[in-house]
Every structure is written in structure tokens, then in C-alpha cells.
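Quick one: C-alpha cells for this chain, please?
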Amino acid sequence: MLKIFCRRTLFLSVLISVFLVVFPAAGQGREVLRFGVLPVVDTLPLFVGEDRGFFRDQGIELEIISFQSALERDAALQAGKLNGYFGDILNTLLLIRSQQALGIMTTAFQTHPDYRMFALVSAPKSGIRDLSGLKGKQVAISRATIIEYLLDRILSTRGKRPEFVEKLEIKKMAIRLQMLLTGQVPAALLPEPLVTLAETKGAHVVMDDRVLDTALTVLALKRDMAEKDASLVKRFLRAYSKAVEVINSDPESCKGVLLTKTRFPGVIKDQYRIPQFPTVGLPAPKDLESAQTWLIRNGLIKTRLPSDQAVLKTALP
């Protein structure tokens, strides 16, 4: 009886071993990377790369975790539940200044002369069609964020100071959009695809970020991850670059991912053009300088962060 039991045990052990060789455990042999994002258009290359297996091909098991607000994402990062992060350039610099051991790997989205990402939009019945009509009027924004930063930058391209308009704090974008469309505010600064959605409901674009030349959002990684595996950043960027190439060469093929993975309103899927994403590369020094100058001017930081503390050396070409 004992011999039969031993033979069965041996057979079961061999069978399990064969099964593990033929069907390895999910993620085995790959580096698991928990990446916190907001479900917005800028994150499309991450979702496309994950969907098409580009990260798996590079030995990375990318786990994309979507948060409904930057506050929730930042809390998860600070609690050590994330290895990587998607966010705007200002928020990233603020996190690094607050002793978060992050380093920027690449720009996620850069303003493009042919594709807008943010716009200053007037209410449908406001009668405002150009910047002069906004003098002294309320503009709904979220303060101390990329939204306020871009409003100031857009105004400055026309020689206007931030005080040219009256800034009204409306943090939630959905409420900001609703107040704009119902005429409760004469204007608002919104991101895509809400800009396109607002246009379909009668709103008017006064100015947009195409007049700028700056990095808007970035991808960053915890420094301990980058230091533990010197090849990780290079492998990540290879996969990400491949996703960018797919989107830029055939954007329509990626609309399905855009619709299912981001907060994209399906009613405008036919009107919306997926933007061209920048090739892999770190934000230009002028972009880091401009962001930090604005943060200092608005009392959010006191001194500038050296560039080598903001970016990952392994991300350099």
C-alpha cells in the first residue's frame, strides 16, 4: 500500500512539474510593475502597449491601475502601493520635492501645433468669441494645478497677465463642464475630450495649448526600481516607444482601447482625432524651468529642483 502511495505521489509530482514548465505561472520570469494612472487620453500608449503585449515582450508585467482623481493616485504612491506613475509635470515636481523618490522617464504628452489637449472655452450663449471678450470675466479652473498653469501660459502668449480674468475655483472637471454648458460661468479651461464634447453642445474655443511648446504630462518611476534593475527603464521605454509608433501610424486602430480604458465619451468618438504622441524623451530643461518658475511665483515651492533630481539618468539617450 505504501509503495502504491509513493508511486502515485511521484507521478503527481512529475505531472505538476511538467504542467509548470508548459504553463508557467502568470508573471513568472517577468518584472511586475504597478503603474498608477488617470484614465485620460494622454495614457493611451500605456494601455495600447499593455493590450498588444509590448511590455510583456520586454519582460515586464505592467499592471495599470486607474484612479478617478490625482489625490487618490498620489495617496497610493505615497503608501508604497505603486512603482510607477503618470501625471502632469507640475504635480510630479511637487511630489519629488515632498521627498517622493521618483524620477521622470519620459514625456507622455507634449503640446503639438496640430492637436490640442487643453483649451480655454466660452459658454454657448456667452457671446464670447475671442480673448478680448474675457476681460474681467470668470474662468472656471482648478487652482495650483496644470489647469491654472496653462491658463497663465496661454494668457501670456497674448501679453496678458493672470489678473486679466477672474479665476473661479471649480475642482471637478465634470462640474466645470456642466457649469460652462448651462451658462453658470462664462468660460472654463478644460482638457480633451471634454473640449470636443463642449463644442458639440455649442461652446466656443477661444484659445488652446497649440500656441505653446511645452511638455504637459510625464511618466515617472520609483528610483529604487530603476536602481534595482539597470535595464528596466530601457526595456520599459522600448515597449512604450513601440506603442507610440502604433498610435501615430494608425490612430483609428486604437480607438477601441481609448473608448474602453479611458473616460472617453462615446458620443464624440467619430468627431475626435487621436493626437500624435511625442517620441520617447525627457522634458526639455526649459519646460522644467518654466514649471518651477511658476510654482515658485505661486508660493508652492521655494527653490528649484536640480534636473538630475527630477529625471532618471537611465532614461537619458
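The CA atoms of residues 17 and 23 lie 10 Å apart.
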